[in-house]
Amino acid sequence: MANIPEDLNYTKDHEWVRVEEKRATVGITDHAQNQLGDVVYVELPKVGDTFEVAEPFGSVESVKAVSEIYMPLGGTVAEVNDSLNDSPEQVNDDPYGDGWMIVIEIENLSQVDSLLNAAEYEDYIKEEGAE
Amino acid sequence: MLKRTPLTEAHISIGARMVAFAGWEMPVQYSGPMQEHLAVREAAGLFDVSHMGEIEVIGEDALELVQRLTTNDAAKLEDDQVQYSIFTNEAGGVMDDLLVYRINSEYFMLVVNAGTTDKDYHWIKQHADSYKVEVHNTSQGYALMALQGPRAELILQALTDHMLDHIPYYWSQRVSVDGVACRVSRTGYTGEDGFEIFAAPDQARHVWNRLLVTGHSHGLVPCGLAARNTLRLEAAFRLYGNDMDDTTTPLEAGLGWVVKLLKANDFTGREILERQKREGLARKLVGFEVLDRAPARDGYTVVIAGQEVGRVASGSPAPFLKKNIGLVYLPIEHSAPGTEFSVLVRGRDVRARVVETPFYKRERKFD
């Protein structure tokens, strides 16, 4: 069973979000890394890049596939986890910790309300799995 | 409706992730492509490759017909010997690649790709009229397992009294595996030592399970199509449909070593291949390494001096080599090792360099 921390928010594209005031830390969920398999490459944007909500901001690659990663909230990239360049496996080993990807300066805080909570995300992946 | 192999239920029961491949429901992975790939390089892996087709050519003229349709020289084969070969079309293009098993002088078994089995069978039938032969598509009659890796022999030997070290590379023998009559050849698609094991469908699950149990303590794991693809790519084995097809010749695909233009019998497409050899190639399939962390994958656009020159034929991260590698057709003037070019990765120009193949070569035991 996938690990889904209670204190985070989620998207249907399997990103997790930790909102702290006007900033949000973003990564991919345990479920997502598990589906993807061993991550060999993570492509991330630069600090200062601006994206709309749901726009792809980067990609995660495993041996067999590429998956895009989408902005859970619109805003400007404030920090990027450069250690994923050398150690992309952190996405598998610690998806909610060392495997974080970017920090966003949130453009519009009202978008936070449309994110899923842990229980909603858990239901969502169950439904997806049942299809 | 997807076809199932005699082992499909066994895969599902041990938690394989199943996908559709060439009309078959096949395991793409069990524990994960990275682990499976490394297990084959360092210990052993077991693959279900029952989707591969078997076509048998039997009769007085069997050798003549095989010679007529394939580029390698099947007359060189002795009983129980195996040969890699190509079916070419009238234009010298590759219709399929295959293994030719000479069972005896009047009995050849051709092992062909899953997606091309029907096409190949009709092609052979179509050319068989003037030959004293029978041609049978016997694909339903065999399960095929590939046991690959440096510990493959040790594992299989535990299940048979047959001295496996008496089966040289590219030879086959009839071997009883835990009491099941099989044909075993020292062949494979991974770049490692290993065997391919043909068994009757109703006995395949017994052989599969016994191999997994026996091999477990030696590091054997079941492997899926994803690992099969990365293993073959590290060894620079061509994949039909990606690295060659009806529109590319075996010479362009770097398979000139199985095109025997001087063999006694004529074969389909021979004149065109002779001319191409005389006049020189305009393009050829080469290996490349990406000079960047981003993998260059199948179908990505290749650019030289601002001009689109083609697409990556096969490209992937290489789990053992820990590089991004691939195969690509390049214009001959840009195909020398060391030549650099660009691959477009999501709009970004990523540099790559032509390298010698194979990317990976195992250390061989010499006996």
Describe this structure in words.
The complex is a heterodimer of chains A (131) and B (367). By secondary structure, chain A is α+β, with helices and mostly antiparallel strands. Chain A has one domain (9-130): OB fold (Dihydrolipoamide Acetyltransferase, E2P) (Beta Barrel). Chain A has four helices and nine strands, in the order βββαβββββααβα. Chain A has helices spanning 30-36, 83-86, 90-93, 118-130; strands at 9-10, 15-20, 23-28, 39-43, 50-51, 56-62, 66-70, 75-80, 102-106. In chain A, strands 1-2-3-9-8-5 form a six-stranded antiparallel beta sheet. In chain A, strands 4-6-7 form a three-stranded antiparallel beta sheet. In chain A, β6 (56-62) and β7 (66-70) form a beta hairpin. The longest helix of chain A has 13 residues, at 118-130. The model of chain A has no long low-confidence stretch (mean pLDDT 95). Chain B has helices at residues 8-13, 33-42, 62-69, 117-127, 152-157, 201-216, 225-234, 270-279, and strands at 17-21, 24-29, 44-48, 53-58, 82-88, 94-104, 107-112, 134-137, 143-148, 172-177, 180-185, 194-199, 220-223, 283-290, 301-304, 307-318, 323-331, 340-345, 348-355. Helix content of chain B is 21%, strand content 34%. Chain B is globular, with a radius of gyration of 21 Å. Chain B folds into three domains: 8-50 and 142-234, Probable tRNA modification gtpase trme, domain 1 (Gyrase A, domain 2, 2-Layer Sandwich); 53-139, 2-Layer Sandwich (Alpha-Beta Plaits), CATH 3.30.70.1400; 282-355, Elongation Factor Tu (Ef-tu), domain 3 (Beta Barrel), CATH 2.40.30. In chain B, the strands form four sheets. In chain B, strands 10-11-12-9-3-13 form a six-stranded mixed beta sheet. A six-stranded antiparallel barrel of chain B has the order 14-17-16-15-18-19. In chain B, strands 5-6-7-4-8 form a five-stranded antiparallel beta sheet, covered by helices on one side. With 367 residues, chain B is of the alpha+beta class. Chain B is built from eight helices and 19 strands. The mean pLDDT of chain B is 97. Chain A binds chain B through residues 37-38, 40-41, 43, 59, 61-64, 66, 85, and chain B through 28-29, 32-35, 37, 226, 229-230, 293-295, 297, 316-317, 319, 346.
